[in-house]
């Protein structure tokens, strides 16, 4: 709600669903460059002059590349919106470094789907993966935002895609350039100080002022 309040007046929001997540789609595990191209192709009809380009987490890095591509073609986005990701992913302490594969799977579900459903992560972290899935599916049944699509199959596909992205995300490096458009960085307040401090580095990627906004919640 707080994020929506800050984005009021930014215009319509169009989203790109990751390949392989849709019902009936075959699993797809693209590289980062392939994801940038996929999002560029998918957003071609709406991304242009006077629109904001934005992304959450790794999507923030994809959005940076999309904005840079548009500028290189002489198209000027209205601005770049970064949702809760610092520019240097490799500097983030690895929260799941000491976890087993089973614990990592639960961690990803708890962070991604659990956060969306306002599920207490501490109630999931000690559960086996299949039991954690059941908790989330039971909770989703009564949530009109997700009940239409959040199934066991969706959770499994989400997990596989997230684990694939996790493997390469720390090697993603932004090009050394400053975008000549406004940059708005939204950072959730639950980050540890060593992570929260990384966000200021976005000033190195903007030719003008960077707006930083802290909002309640978790990643």
TrEMBL record:
Protein name: Nonribosomal peptide synthetase 2
Domain of life: Bacteria
All copies of domain Thioesterase TesA-like, residue ranges: 3-159
SMART domains tied to this protein: PKS_TE
Listed Pfam families: Thioesterase
InterPro entries xref list: AB_hydrolase_fold, TesA-like, Thioesterase
């Amino acid at each position: 709600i707080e994020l929506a309040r800050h984005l009021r007046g930014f215009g319509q929001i169009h989203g790109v669903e990751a390949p392989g997540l849709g019902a009936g789609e075959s699993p797809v595990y693209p590289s980062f460059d392939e994801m940038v191209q996929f999002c560029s192709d998918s957003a071609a009809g709406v991304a242009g002059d006077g629109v904001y380009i934005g992304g959450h987490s790794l999507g923030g890095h994809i959005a940076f590349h999309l904005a840079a591509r548009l500028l290189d073609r002489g198209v000027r986005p209205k601005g770049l919106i970064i949702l809760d990701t610092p520019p240097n992913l490799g500097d983030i302490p690895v929260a799941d470094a000491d976890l087993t594969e089973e614990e990592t799977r639960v961690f990803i579900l708890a962070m991604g789907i659990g956060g969306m459903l306002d599920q207490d992560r501490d109630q999931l972290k000690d559960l086996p993966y299949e039991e954690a899935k059941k908790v989330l599916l039971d909770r989703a049944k009564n949530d009109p935002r997700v009940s239409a699509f959040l199934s066991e199959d969706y959770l499994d596909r989400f997990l596989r895609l997230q684990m694939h992205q996790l493997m390469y995300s720390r090697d993603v490096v932004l090009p050394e350039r400053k975008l000549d458009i406004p940059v708005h960085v939204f950072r959730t307040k639950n980050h540890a100080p060593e992570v929260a401090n990384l966000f200021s580095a976005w000033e190195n990627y903007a030719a003008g002022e960077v707006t930083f906004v802290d909002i309640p919640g978790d990643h």
